[in-house]
Design brief:
single chain, 206 residues, alpha+beta, 7 helices, 3-oxoacyl-ACP synthase
Length: 206
């Protein structure tokens, strides 16, 4: 049984900048997140109309995942066994705030269903799975900070147990328009950069 796993590729979105494998692929300075993420979506020619109805956390995670997975040139008929393991600090807090506001709105008898559907952080995993036809394991963990050690252990366990052939994992955090970050990486039995805590932190901090 293979016990060595590797980071095949990685993507990040923060500070109005989108990167793939350490290279900037799009940036839009001095723009609010809502404007920036829509512009990045169009620039990267991401085709998924439901994107515009998503909450901000889902838009962030979806775009980071889509850029990474498109670069892998996956065969959607064969490469379905990709697990997704995400994490963040604030869960779905941004949407929770909006949901609470809709409940307290005296002009409305009912909270907004369009907002309520995104009051769980793992909804973003569902959006990614639908777009890329992924049917494997998925989990969403809440940590105080980016926890590379836990992601390493959990991901390697999924691979070694045969529950997935590859794992898309990382950190997707959205609190406010000025406080957001996505860092995703794809782990596989094949590659050159060994999947361990040290290497994850190295690419996360670059």
């Amino acid at each position: 049984m293979n016990t060595n796993y590797y980071i095949k590729s990685y993507s990040s979105i923060k500070n109005n900048q989108v990167s793939l494998n350490g290279s900037v692929v799009y940036q839009k300075e001095e723009a609010a997140f809502s404007e920036f993420i829509k512009a990045a979506y169009k620039d990267q020619e991401t085709k998924y109309p439901k994107f515009f109805k998503m909450d901000k956390l889902s838009k962030l995670a979806f775009l980071a995942a889509d850029i990474l997975l498109k670069n892998e040139n996956l065969d959607q008929e064969k490469d379905k066994d990709i697990a997704i393991v995400f994490s963040n600090k604030t869960s779905s807090l941004d949407t929770d705030r909006k949901h609470q506001e809709s409940i307290q709105n005296k002009e409305s008898y009912y909270p907004s269903p369009a907002v309520f559907v995104y009051t769980l952080p793992n909804i973003c995993i569902g959006e990614i799975s639908i777009k890329h036809k992924l049917y494997s394991e998925n989990s969403f963990f809440i940590f105080e900070n980016f926890n590379a050690a836990h992601l390493t252990t959990y991901t390697n366990s999924l691979l070694s147990s045969g529950k997935a052939e590859q794992v898309l994992c990382g950190w997707v955090e959205f609190d406010t328009e000025d406080n957001y970050e996505a860092f995703l990486y794809l782990v596989s039995p094949k590659g050159t950069l060994e999947h361990n805590k040290q290497n994850i932190l190295k690419i996360y901090n670059t």
